[in-house]
Request: fold
Amino acid sequence: MTIPSSASQREESFLTWYTRAAASDTHDVYFIGSTSKDSFWRLVVELRDWLTDDHVDSFLALLRRHQAYRQSTVSQRWTTTHTFFGGHIEMAWKSWQTTPIDEFEFSGLFTRMVDATYTSGLLYKPWGMVDQVFIPINFENAHWVAGIIDFREWTITVYNSEVSYSENIETLEQRMRPYMTFIPSLLEATSGLR
Reply:
């Protein structure tokens, strides 16, 4: 396969693929949120706008699907969360901090994600069966970063493409504090703790 070199050739190549994509492809790629390839790609290609939760969740769903259907060639020791997971951690963390630990109840949203009982068709894996969990994290409703929980090392690594969101280590630690403190308690409260 030859990669087109000029911008016009790349655009022509994309448009050829885009216009020929079968309608049946829609359910595989765009089944979370967006209902058509037009609405899904319009923001990215035509408007060059912010990626929505739908874009990120659809990409993560494609990764999980690739993992499920290529078990002999793709590692089976990882899973992802949905984009809402990170946002809900930040909200629940505030309540978790002020509630006695023996009185705090983790919402079903969290326990179903950790136990992979959220929605079977989305191919999530129970956290107790994986080494890593990839979490999309949205900083200040303005920037996506990738968080990776590594259960072998008991670390959370943040991958970030924009320096301004991580150049100050204290600010980054403050943004990640809900994840660093809330997730261990969530694992202890569910079957996610091995």
Summary: The longest helix spans residues 169-189. The radius of gyration is 19 Å. Residues 112 and 118 are 5 Å apart (CA to CA). Helices lie at 7-20, 26-29, 37-46, 53-69, 83-98, 108-115, 169-189.
